[in-house]
Specification:
Blueprint (H helix, E strand, L loop, with lengths): L2 H16 L6 H16 L3 E6 L2 E7 L8 H4 L11
Antiparallel strand pairs: 1-2
């Protein structure tokens, strides 16, 4: 993953967290679609503590989820999106 992808993903993720309506509707649909795919992927590594998700990341590229799905220019290393 490039520095551009990392910055883009984090920026869009934070923008969506702060003000959901400010997120581009096209990006919101893309995020929803990608999130469903990633959540069902066996490569997604989820770390929990006492039943709470502490972090999740892609086992193929090492990117953190859900920020990975917010980077428009990022492609799934498994070719799923």
């Amino acid at each position: 993953m490039s520095v551009k992808n990392i910055g883009e993903g984090w920026f869009n993720f934070m923008k969506g967290c702060i003000r959901r309506r400010s997120l581009d509707p096209e990006l919101a649909m893309l995020v929803e679609k990608r999130s469903k795919i990633c959540s069902a992927c066996p490569k997604l590594e989820v770390t929990t503590r006492r039943g709470f998700v502490m972090r999740a990341k892609c086992g193929s590229c090492g990117c953190f989820f859900p920020m990975i799905v917010y980077a428009k220019s990022k492609e799934c290393p498994e070719g799923k999106w």
